[in-house]
Design goal:
- One of its GO terms (biological process) is L-tryptophan biosynthetic process.
- InterPro entries: ADC_synthase, Anth_synth_I-like, Chorismate_C.
- GO terms for molecular function: 4-amino-4-deoxychorismate synthase activity.
- Pfam families: Chorismate_bind (PF00425).
- About 25% of the residues lie in helices and about 35% in strands.
- It is α+β, with helices and mostly antiparallel strands.
- The C terminus is likely disordered.
- It has an 18-stranded antiparallel beta sheet that branches.
Amino acid sequence: MKDAFAHVGGTLATGLADVTSDPAALDSGGWWAVVVTYEGKVTCARFTDVRPGRPPAAPWRGPEKWTTSLDESAYVAGVRRIQDAIADGVVYQANLCRVLSAPLPAGADIAGLGALLAEGNPAPYAMTLRLPGTEIASASPELYLARDGDVVESRPIKGTARTVAGLLPKDRAENVMIVDLVRNDLGRVAEVGSVEVPALCAAEEHPGLVHLVSTVRARLRSGVGWPELLAASFPPGSVTGAPKASALTLLDTLEPVPRGPYCGAIGWVDGDSRRGALAVGIRTFWTADGLLNFGTGAGITWGSDPVGEWRETELKAARLLEVSTGEGLGQR
């Protein structure tokens, strides 16, 4: 079996010591890699050797052909179903996703894909992780939760285009809706009056596209730990919808396969310093049952153009899929 490791932000963690599904462990000592699937399965892995470093050198060969859990006609029909639900007052917005899958080529190593993504699509919350039964290479641009002591911050993304000029009024409206949702989520565990929005709908450039990004910050109440913080805010609002409970129910009827790590949480927690950063699991590859998977989606509002939303899912996936085929570029 290949050695377990985590690589995030220039830090290489090896020496796997513990694996648990209990997020309360994150409030104890040690450095932890964390994955929470969209469906809520928690994996916390403690590593004993944490140091600056590059990911392990490994070969990679990208898949040749992808299939999708929702083709264009099914996706467009799903968008219209969501718009019907908006008209009926069930939701205001919902994030419809699809999962792309391809056979994992023989000899391909997730570490090689992670290095390739770091070269071809650098991202602020990138992470590569190999654990028993879990392999992930993420180029996430979105912060779900960062914690420094009692201060917690989320930076939801809503609004995507190729250029700033391509952003629509619908994008800003969608972002504001999700900011309200995140404010309410954090408010459940925050000190009264501490929730603030330092930045609203700021344009942020990433490889091949531009996003609208907001920042929500709060101070946690005394006694609040990672279990309470996750319970109050998971799944991330930017990849579910508003109201969150209604959106989750609706999306469960429209999406034919589980999202897995996609749209979940991926990152690290240092229990000794009480710091950590969990990304939203977007722009993320993961392996399962001999397949390499990749998720993509779009936020649907009353003003959405169904075909335009399908094209947004293609835009979000295009660069990452192209980078993943760059045979040899990530090998060192």
